[in-house]
Amino acid sequence: MQWYLPKQLCLILLVLGGCIAHAQEQNRVITTGVPFLMITPDARAAGMGDQGVATPADAFAQQWNPAKHVFLSQDGGVGISYTPYLSKLVNDIFLGNLNYYRKLNDRSVWATSLKYFSLGDIQFNELIGGSIVDQGTERPNELTLDLSYALKLSETFSMAVAGRFIRSDLKINSNTDTRSANSLGVDLSGYFQSNPFKLSENTAVFRSGFNISNVGPRLKYDVGGVKNYIPTNLKLGMGLELFYSSNNRLGVYTEFNKLLVPGPVATYDENNNFTGYTQPDINFLKGISTSFSDAPDGFKEELKEITWALGLEYVLQESFALRTGYFNESPEKGSRRYITFGAGFGLPQMDIDISYLFSTSRVRSPLENTLRFSVNFKWGNPSP
């Protein structure tokens, strides 16, 4: 994609962006920096309504719940995924994700991942004396690099901690020497997987999990000294997997999410006239504590800030899987609502997954009608 933008047009777009942000504030939508961290990177989770905190472990557990790694049955593995973004409009905006995990023993695992979000090429031109002068090309991008350690505390429960470096480089002027905005984030997660038990005539396994992710300072951008909260988030989930035989099983999973950043609050001018809604300028720790009680309409509005997802996964002979799911967000808090479908194909040392999304809201998803792909390579047997 090539954007041929004179500087005057860039200024107009920035003003329009401010108007859009103001409109969102009027609706009291919670906004954060680096929102790409909330995009589901792997096709397996995407096929189940964008959830993964309590689903069976795979190579992409780092993105959802690192504590799941200790329940994997291989010594190590690599997960690679590619997600086109706004694919109906452009062809060079995408999210790439690379994951690696390695078992240290049967109770502990370390893992790392790299997530890269490219906003495509932006070419700047300026009209000088009736001629178009090339002002250079920029490729805005954002990325994260993280490392986690998971430990099995019992036969059925594990916990993990992860650290994350976050970099946001959104330069929009080739003649300005602006630096990237950087921050650090910490995750704390837990995962429970029961021993198999009898449920009616079938064998079942119950799973649950939580993850408090991206706890860290705000990003500070050079332009205007703007500070943006990173998407600190609380995930809670549970699920039940039924084994109808040794060759086929069905899993049902649900997940709830809430952003732990302060929501927009009412602001007034010197004459006590209402001027709109803006996020308060407070540190991230205070923002977490106030995020449960700062909604202007009280507890009723706080509940609207919680998104939920429901997903199904059917696996046949560990070689083929069908998935579907539904994701729901309140119309007053973003109105993301969509149905997802997915499929998986299993080989002895590799799994391939694809997914597809249909929006059910008037607010169209940037990922609508987009195929997402991920590949999981695995090797070895569990360490003794």
List keywords for this structure.
single chain, 384 residues, Porin, 22 strands, 49% strand, mainly beta, 3-stranded mixed sheet
What's the short version?
The protein has helices at residues 7-26, 43-47, 61-64, 284-290, 299-304, and strands spanning 4-5, 76-84, 94-103, 108-118, 122-128, 131-138, 141-152, 157-169, 181-193, 197-199, 202-215, 219-220, 227-228, 233-243, 248-259, 265-268, 274-278, 306-316, 320-328, 337-347, 350-359, 372-379.
What would you note in describing this structure?
This protein has 384 residues and is mainly beta. The chain has one domain: Beta Barrel (Porin), CATH 2.40.160. It is built from five helices and 22 strands. The strands form four sheets. It has a 14-stranded antiparallel beta barrel. The radius of gyration is 22 Å and the shape is globular. The N terminus is likely disordered.
